[in-house]
Amino acid sequence: MYRTLFLFLTLFSLSMSSVVSQEYATYVNPFIGTSNYGATFPGPITPRGMASITPFNVAGKQNKLEKDSRWHSTPYVNENTFLTGFSQVNLSGVGCPDLGVILVMPTTGEVETNHLKYGTTYSNEIAKAGYYSNTLDKYQVKTEFTASKRVGVSKFTFPKGQSNILLNLGLGLTNEEGAMVQIISPTEIEGMRSVGSFCYNSPEDAYPVYFVAKFSKPADKFGAWKKPRTYEGEEAKWMTYNGKTRIMEQTTKMVVGDSIGSYFSYHFDKEETIEVKIGVSYVSIKNARENLETETANKSFDAIYKDTFNEWNTLLSRVKVKGGTEEDKINFYTALYHTLIHPNTLNDSNGDYPEIKTGKTGHTSGTRYTVFSLWDTYRNLHQLMSLVYPEQQSDMVKNMLSMYDENGWLPKWELNSTETFTMVGDPAGIVIADTYLKGIQDFDVQKAYKAMLKSANQLDNNPLRPGLKNYLEKGYLTTDDGGSVSTTQEYNASDYAIAVLAKKLGKKNDYKTYKKRSISYRKLFDKSFKLLRPRNSDGSFYKPFDPLAGANFTKSVGFIEGNAWQYAFMAPHDINGLIKLMGGDKSFVKQLQKVFDDNQFDMANEPDIAYPFLFNYVKGEAWRSQKLVRELSNQYFQNKPAGLPGNDDTGTMSAWLVYAMMGIYPASIGDNVYQITSPVFDAIEIQLDNKYYSGKTLKITTKNNSKENRYIQSIKLNNKTLNRYYVTHEELVNGAVLELEMGNQPKK
Amino acid sequence: MYRTLFLFLTLFSLSMSSVVSQEYATYVNPFIGTSNYGATFPGPITPRGMASITPFNVAGKQNKLEKDSRWHSTPYVNENTFLTGFSQVNLSGVGCPDLGVILVMPTTGEVETNHLKYGTTYSNEIAKAGYYSNTLDKYQVKTEFTASKRVGVSKFTFPKGQSNILLNLGLGLTNEEGAMVQIISPTEIEGMRSVGSFCYNSPEDAYPVYFVAKFSKPADKFGAWKKPRTYEGEEAKWMTYNGKTRIMEQTTKMVVGDSIGSYFSYHFDKEETIEVKIGVSYVSIKNARENLETETANKSFDAIYKDTFNEWNTLLSRVKVKGGTEEDKINFYTALYHTLIHPNTLNDSNGDYPEIKTGKTGHTSGTRYTVFSLWDTYRNLHQLMSLVYPEQQSDMVKNMLSMYDENGWLPKWELNSTETFTMVGDPAGIVIADTYLKGIQDFDVQKAYKAMLKSANQLDNNPLRPGLKNYLEKGYLTTDDGGSVSTTQEYNASDYAIAVLAKKLGKKNDYKTYKKRSISYRKLFDKSFKLLRPRNSDGSFYKPFDPLAGANFTKSVGFIEGNAWQYAFMAPHDINGLIKLMGGDKSFVKQLQKVFDDNQFDMANEPDIAYPFLFNYVKGEAWRSQKLVRELSNQYFQNKPAGLPGNDDTGTMSAWLVYAMMGIYPASIGDNVYQITSPVFDAIEIQLDNKYYSGKTLKITTKNNSKENRYIQSIKLNNKTLNRYYVTHEELVNGAVLELEMGNQPKK
């Protein structure tokens, strides 16, 4: 880890010196989150790219974290050392294994197809926005990678002698198997790799990633390999090749199997460089080829990298920060970078994409995004997109409605047009309502509303809201249902989203109905504990009740990925109601502080991540939020591979940090406000969109800000003193100037 | 077997009554050879067709002969009863399992993908040239099949209710695995199935059969299935679907795996008929589609069947027989039919074909044939083709030279452009020289000669003649080499072919050299046994020597698939020399008769199949040949499923019968003569080709011919008495009229 980091910083400093200060993309350190289960990857990707490349170092017992030894969700772990290829499609910051396939690997000498034998350690790792490089120790091959939106681009510098480029379609992060490969010519390979079964769910929805690979130089020799399964019948005694890898030299025929690959071999008289472009598609090989041609034909590695870097720079520079340390900027822009990876592009350059569930090919003139980890992202990531990248957020909502058109349901945890049904709740409507409230309204809101009502009310065959019958009859799910307390809280939040949207749409009765439904979680409040507690189907509280059970992903009755303490304050639509329920301000603050004091707060999981901001709701207690947010940011988010608290959750953790460092946070649902805490920087400027918003610049500035001066002394909004610790979205997007006077003493 | 045969004969008689007598194709009984390891299949194929369909009944323990329980080479066994589909590419009369894939299966009710569950018994089997039908007992579905050259055509008559058409790409006869399938629309499926590793050889040459299936009615529902291998890693505990078949409903994505398939489902209100056309190609899916369109677009099942029947009829009627029994005609025309299956067409309708070894796609304006089982077919099948179908034989020789161009070597046992290296010897040159001698000379004979010399002389890396060094130095292979005696005999015969071609080409020195080389087998003659006997590398005879060892495919030193008796007379190029070696006429006849008397003669394997004709070489002993050939024909070749002596060996056994029943046989090499024995029929007329030959009719007639009158009393050739028991090829193709006077007493 030290080695890597040291190198990165050294090279980073070098590159920093050669760029102008406006190049915000140079602050991105893609190594952040590549340890401590952050599950990010260090390789290149464009903003919301379909293709990405990462070193793949999770196979082989030499590695500390081996992919098959546990529930392992990442293609790359920074402290691992044994590399077996570079995968061409990858997920960032997720908690389940998938993708991490189509492994390209340069080697030298004789062709060796067993990854445990051809694998190698590596040195000289460099990762930047849109670029990754290392040197393979065993082969002394320099690798470099960049990517356009749908094409991964590799550049290998080989020593003289025999060199090989393997395309391993067997090895991968996904637990799905099966691939096809066909060498089309000495410069071109096409094929597919099966992926899917994300979180070990929906294996019947496993699907192909199609690809076309083009090489800058024709191979002197080529071939494919196949390792068949071991045949166990009577005839095995004649099959001398039973279960053994077979090499098919110069084959141009289609090869299929669970463990297959292809190789291109070269004989070089001197050091030589080869570029490999791999276009991908989830629709067809034809489209993969078209993606490749459209994006990279006749374009050099350097030109592609430059364009990708510029694309990052353009997007990241929508938020300009001043002040703070270099580390602060690295942490900030890397976090912003991580929020711009997922949801990512699913459609091909011609607009084709696989529809969800129908088996048909859909077509979009805009962007069809995928990877909607909504249980995570409804809490802050989509709000951040709405604020800074509303044109993207608009597309994402439109995508959700397209999914509803295709599949009959809004998405829950959508991945490449498969619904993985991961996690609980019915989060899409919360995102849709919030987006609409924020002024992004260029979507069919009536359809959206209809879709939200469907999942809120359809009792039978409702894939989004299991346990709905109990919820509607009793107001809560019972211990007969899974995660009864958590899920009740989630459904409440979703119902509140329906209520606020109903109000906006003038549906007064619906507003009342769903507002009432949204506070039914209160029935689970146990005064004796001042906590939410599971109830049995007869209405009695579940016994025995251990409020600590469920922490650290241990099993607990009533709670999903957390315990009663971690879920105690998750009523983002009813915070004032919750304060009353808890017995008023004093009791609420005492109980909330206890979460942190007793070390029950989990920075790495979503249910409680808004809690640090909730002290703002009690007069005179906002300083606690200011203190906590600074502390948590420093403790959990750092410029190092282990610099994320855990899974980035497709950017949710990173979105938390972006907001936290800017001093605003969307802790609530349906009221369109941001809680104000202490920004890290002297100034933050957000270039506001001019279609959805004012087109002005939102400015947040601080005076006397420092590590010690972490407490807000006074706030001015547009030059007028602000006597509250929140600011509305409307105020912000009209081009607010928010000035914070900082000091080292809490203002109580 | 009885059931089947009875039905066949009943229906056959019915159909016979409705056709005119010239329809020779009505005599074909495709059930002949479908038991007793004949390895033929009963389903439809055109002459030399690429596609064919056969009921597949060798999976499931219900069957007497289960494909995985032994070295099993047939997709269909007549006495088996449990049917699990209809395979679309098949080999006829071979001894190793391959092809027998792309299984189509109609079912009713819910979709069941496990062949052990969806399989069924069947009734009402009918098989004719170009047509097969049965009724599936479990589903009461009537099946009918026909084929054009590259397209298998299925017709299913379903009862009302839910019906399904499965396309099972997992199950198959080949031991190779791996397939791809993609549903393109509710009427079209494309994909591929891996095949190869014939005789458990050359697994690295395994290759795909590509296909496109078109359905006459759009499916109401469709899907694919995949049974993944069982994952055994740590994560198996979360994979509830581990190793289980998964159904992917309405998928149009590419699916790959070892055990996959697709289904189309229909809901019928009444009895309905669906036709399925499956085009195949060994080049590409595109070509499979083009084959389908070119041959069958807008053509009904009945029209395709009619054309295929006519094609058979046209070819079979080149030989017109009169007299004999109905059974004789059935045996004869079925045998001729079996000689017209392999070699079969490899090229697509556009001329594309996969080159051998190169990985490239070749192109032909004629026909590229495949399935050259030359160790078998050099002995009689190609001679029959040269006589009756010289235009085909010409193409076959040209194909061999193309293979030489592509691969650097003539073929040995070529299968779909893979060299399987099955059996021993270097037989291609024998076929080429014989074809040239027979007057079919429109090929590059200089190239052919060069190719023959190459395998005869290249010491290193010679795939055709292992052991060549010993052979050249000592005149024979030694016990250090495999099958030393047999292989020496084979190389001798091949060298003689070079000698006669050298003579024809005016290469006198070569003639001498190779003629000398061709008789080196004599060095293996052990006078004490009057048999050929293996020699050790020091020149001594191998001990102990058991002349009986090696029969019935048991292992023996020195002999391939046979024993010393079975190989004792295999000097087809030096029969007179062998007679001398044996000690003269008397000793030779005694020894030869002993082969038959001691039951050492094996009708089912090639080395000795010419022996019954060898008595013709000794004056006054020809009656023995006449007697034996009649007896063997009657004993081993009958109108019943077990009506072949064993593997048909891609028509070699059948060619034997065709010749035997016509009363001529090419028992020797290089002298262009046929031995005359007793024909079965009153008259045989062969329409001679007018490009290569005279265009006249070759007539063989008999007088007083009967079962008892099996001995030739006198022979007239073109109205002149013939005082010999052979006729030359030249005499025949000039339009000979050969008249035989028969009687019940041997003429000694």
UniProtKB/TrEMBL annotation, chains A, B:
<dbReference type="InterPro" id="IPR014718">
    <property type="entry name" value="GH-type_carb-bd"/>
</dbReference>
<dbReference type="InterPro" id="IPR041371">
    <property type="entry name" value="GH92_N"/>
</dbReference>
<keyword id="KW-0378">Hydrolase</keyword>
<dbReference type="InterPro" id="IPR008928">
    <property type="entry name" value="6-hairpin_glycosidase_sf"/>
</dbReference>
<dbReference type="Pfam" id="PF17678">
    <property type="entry name" value="Glyco_hydro_92N"/>
</dbReference>
<dbReference type="Pfam" id="PF07971">
    <property type="entry name" value="Glyco_hydro_92"/>
</dbReference>
<keyword id="KW-0326">Glycosidase</keyword>
<dbReference type="GO" id="GO:0016798">
    <property type="term" value="F:hydrolase activity, acting on glycosyl bonds"/>
</dbReference>
<comment type="subunit">
    <text>Monomer.</text>
</comment>
<dbReference type="InterPro" id="IPR050883">
    <property type="entry name" value="PNGase"/>
</dbReference>
<feature type="domain" description="Glycosyl hydrolase family 92">
    <location>
        <begin position="287"/>
        <end position="744"/>
    </location>
</feature>
<dbReference type="InterPro" id="IPR012939">
    <property type="entry name" value="Glyco_hydro_92"/>
</dbReference>
<keyword id="KW-0106">Calcium</keyword>
<keyword id="KW-0732">Signal</keyword>
<protein>
    <submittedName>
        <fullName>GH92 family glycosyl hydrolase</fullName>
        <ecNumber>3.2.1.-</ecNumber>
    </submittedName>
</protein>
<dbReference type="InterPro" id="IPR005887">
    <property type="entry name" value="GH92_a_mannosidase_put"/>
</dbReference>
<feature type="domain" description="Glycosyl hydrolase family 92 N-terminal">
    <location>
        <begin position="27"/>
        <end position="281"/>
    </location>
</feature>
<feature type="signal peptide">
    <location>
        <begin position="1"/>
        <end position="21"/>
    </location>
</feature>
